[in-house]
Amino acid sequence: MLILEASDLKKYYGDRLIISFKNLKIKSGDKVGVVGRNGAGKSTLLNILAGEVDPDEGTIHRYCSISYMKQFSDENITAQGKILKEFRVEKKVDTENVSGGERTKLSIAAALSKGRELLLADEPTSNLDYEGISVLRKKLSKIETFVLISHDREFMDSLCNRIIEIENGKLVFYEGNYSCYKKQKSIKMKSIQNEYEQYISEKSRLEKAVTERESKSKSMKKTPKRMGNSEARLHRRESGEKRKKVEGAAKIIETRLEKLEIKEKPDRIPEVKFDFSLTDPPKNKIVISGDNICFSYGSNVILNNTNFKIYNKSKTAVIGPNGSGKTTLLNLIYGNFKSIYKVPRVKIGYFYQDFQNLDYDKTILENVMGNSIQDESSVRTILARLLFFDDEVYKKVSVLSGGEKIKVSFAKLFVSDVNVLLLDEPTNYLDIYSIEALEDIIKVYDGTIVFVSHDSRFINSVAKRLLLLKDGQITEFHGNLKEFQEQQKLKNDNSNYSIEKSILQMKLTEIISKMSLPNCDREMLEVEYKSILHELKSLKKK
User: What is the residue range of the signal peptide feature (predicted)?
Assistant: First the structure.
């Protein structure tokens, strides 16, 4: 059943066309994921569908009630007590002491409590911990129809059955989840690359053919020396006829060249190369360590007599529930906390999303070159890898979106003289393409990186170690999040096996005891004994 339709819609900001499409239909059962580069118009689209922003052209018909889960919301929270408890924020309503993740949970609970037919959700997983994301995933899986903007690829994979890509203001539709979209998009990009290469080959062939015929035509104009007048007239007439044919053929080829459909060159993603030795990196095996760390905010104990180590050139993810002290730990590492030791040659760069390191009156290139120890060629490569191509590097920072400013901040860190990076939620507010680009840069970065993230796919892609924060303690794990979860599952399975095995063995002991009693039903007990032995064997096989 059709529940929303938008037709011939256009939206401008100033003289810039943000959104322009012919038709969009949302039907019952559609679980739509919206993707696109930062500034492509994803939030604008949801604002228009929700009726919070009017289009400049076009019409929208809404045949349903709508609930809107905004990315930044200051509305008063009115939510069902059950949902608040599921997100564990029932005690946070009408209080000022609320973290970013808790505020997000409150906003989600309010939107879900309205029980509308269509849910619009703009980056609902931002600032959520793993528990919050898990609860939200279960809730959305039970909602029949939604339109979702998210940079969390695992989240979209588990929920969406359609993907809308916003590209140059247009909507491109793909069936399936995010992984299906990626496969279809990859095939499409290969086809575009092949078409471009064929276009360049054909253009080159036609230009060469025109040049050859023009050269041949010029050579025909010359009359050989020592030729009589009558022979010269005959030669000129014959050569004139041949020249007309050659020039005619050249014009036909020129016409074909003019009518040749132009194919734009696809953006080429360059390989990142820069001289990391310029940062004078430390040679120590362990570059940062914490011993017997204790830290509190008043009576709220964050870290309680705990330890950790950061290894040279490692990529370490700091994970844990909201309020466990992840950002606090980064702050302590960055500062001069007495219980944390950093080797002498460590130079730390800290990314956090307030853009204090950016000069809004300068261009992207000027900002990044300002403190760069790399040459301009390396800087341009980093910027291109972060999807700032060609003349885009001359844009003023003041006109950039929040996600684009984040990428400029990253670029400044990567080409600076620092050799240890602290990144606090680096994927928040980045589009999916930028997250994947950031992953690729981090993988080839020669320095040490410690980062906080709730993006499971990002962690699994780049992290080789984990610092797990819970109940004031830090636990180190060598491996990524997927490997940790598999180990935990194995431990749980082993624990369950031990419990089940103990129960069955106790039953066997009980049966043996009963068999020793006079007047027992031995035949029935033997049947039961064999049955339990069979259960034990089956349990061991599992």
Answer: none
